Amino acid sequence: MIYLQNFINGKWIGAESKESREILNPATGEVIAHAADGDVADAQAAIGAARKAFDSGDWSELAATDRAAYLYKIADKLEENAEEISRLETLDNGKPLRETQFDVADAVACFRYYAGMVSKPDGITYQVSDPMQAMVVREPVGVCGLIVPWNYPLLMAVWKIAPALAAGNTIVFKPSEITPVTAKWLFEIIEQVGVPAGVANMVMGPGKTVGNEIAESHDVDKVSFTGGTATGRNIMKAAAGNIKKISLELGGKSPNIIFADADFEAAVDYALFGIYAGAGQVCSAGSRLLVEDSIYDRFVEELADRAQKIRVGPGNDPETEMGPLVSREHMEKVLGYIEIGKEEGAKLLCGGRQLKENGLEKGYFVEPTIFVDTKPDMRIVREEIFGPVLVIQRFKDEADAVRLANDTDYGLAAGVFTNDGAKAMRVIKKIRAGITWINCYHPTYNEAPWGGYKQSGIGRGLGTYGYEEFTEVKQININLEVEPTGWFSN
Ligand code: NAD
């Protein structure tokens, strides 16, 4: 059994209320951990520690190369423990080991990427008239609240923690209350490498109390949030009190467009990968598949045939290709959407059931599911289901594909498959989304900005963009000939 405590001001402590929460393995429903269930008081203690640490300058005024050295050490230790951490991530989140191994490797690379960036030049000077000298410098924002969801528990944490610490901020991190296990390992590493007490704090607990306090507190200068769009809206409101800086990485209903001239087998393969990787619990999932009329029947038939052959099972079985959903509650939500799709008149082509055979009955497994004969105004086409449910839309030509692709409140990601390079670029340029792919789906890079248009968020994570989100810019104007202005005569 794993016991998880909050990490506040360099100390591991239980929730002030003494409450704890059971953490379940989504493949079996078994209790794997007891986590401190923090509330407002715990969040305030962590915010107070982060405030004191920031104001002391112990971290923000450290030489950039010294901060980088801590980040490199964190990366090394994560790498040394990669096998154990991916095993725990699979236990907690449910996704197959091959996915969590990838997540841990990506987390290691992210720490190294920002360790490398922090010591590079990041200010500018510009010419102004003599005798003035002008420059712009970047400074840390201050205390940053980092709130993440359950679908990539470690990776989403690292996408925020690495740039925030690199830039000299102090942090209060809140994992999802459903998946806090690997955060413990990450913060133990942060402690082991000697990051000063109070610089990095972690509080577990519900969004409504801990998360809301982080978003609302006037001692927090910035909140960086990844999660659902409705929660993002609440965070914007809570953050308004002290005009907190906010970055929001929210939901999506991303189109994946298949033209008739695409490489057929590759397009089928990526269409499956786009929706069923992570059991569809991926913000950028290609959850709306747009297929050109002339290949529609053949494409959909091949897709359904292959979807039904996906091996669904526990994430720790090396044979498993798709794991369970993260919780019973989330599974009920996804199954609810499948019922809504049927009621709306869409045709269920395959899947649609909870899998209960072959020892899966205690877990939260849902079959790879495909709906056809959909209409653009159906809820299953418009709303984020966040599960292994693909909705297919048919299109006539390029203009029709662009119109359907953009007919959404979201704007996170999009894919286009065609062997006509000019057409691919024409379409991508017209699509209102922040993350796009041509003839592939899902590759992400630490170097590239991650985030969305429209209701998919505000700001960008990763890359130089993600680093800048954790900085303020200050202009400094220096007078090189100091004498009175003479503006007033007396
Ligand atoms: P969620 O919004 O329910 O929760 C995310 C986090 O916010 C959790 O830690 C939760 O405790 C906290 N929270 C909840 N209510 C809060 C409040 N009122 N104030 C402050 N914090 C609060 O999301 P989820 O169900 O954990 O994750 C799924 C969602 O995350 C999906 O919509 C998905 O698209 C999105 N997501 C987006 C990205 C991206 O990069 N755009 C990446 C991963 C997941």
How would you describe this protein?
By secondary structure, the protein is an alpha/beta fold. Helices cover 38% and strands 21% of the residues. The strands form six sheets. Strands 15-16-17-14-13-19-20 form a seven-stranded mixed beta sheet, sandwiched between helices. The protein has a six-stranded mixed beta sheet with strand order 10-9-8-11-12-22, with helices on both faces. The protein has a three-stranded mixed beta sheet with strand order 1-5-4, with no helix packed on it. It is globular and about 85 Å long. The site of nicotinamide-adenine-dinucleotide (NAD) has 31 residues, from helix 7 and helix 8. Nicotinamide-adenine-dinucleotide binds at residues 147-151, 156, 174, 176-177, 206-208, 211-212, 215, 226-228, 231, 234-235, 249-252, 283, 384, 386, 412, 450, 457.
Fold topology:
Layout lengths: L1 E3 L1 E3 L2 E3 L6 E5 L6 E6 L3 H17 L7 H17 L1 H12 L3 H22 L5 E3 L5 E9 L2 E5 L5 H14 L3 E5 L6 H12 L7 E3 L4 H10 L5 E5 L2 H11 L5 E5 L5 E4 L5 H13 L11 E5 L3 H12 L20 H17 L2 E4 L18 E4 L6 H4 L6 E7 L2 H9 L3 E2 L1 E5 L3 H10 L4 E4 L14 E2 L2 E2 L4 H6 L2 E9 L11
Parallel strand pairs: 1-5, 8-9, 8-11, 9-10, 11-12, 13-14, 13-19, 14-17, 16-17, 19-20
Antiparallel strand pairs: 2-3, 4-5, 6-7, 7-23, 12-22, 15-16, 18-21
Helix pairs in contact: 1-7, 2-4, 3-4, 4-5, 7-8, 9-10
The chain binds nicotinamide-adenine-dinucleotide.
Nicotinamide-adenine-dinucleotide (NAD) binds next to α7 and α8.
In short:
With 490 residues, the protein is of the alpha/beta class. It has 15 helices and 23 strands.
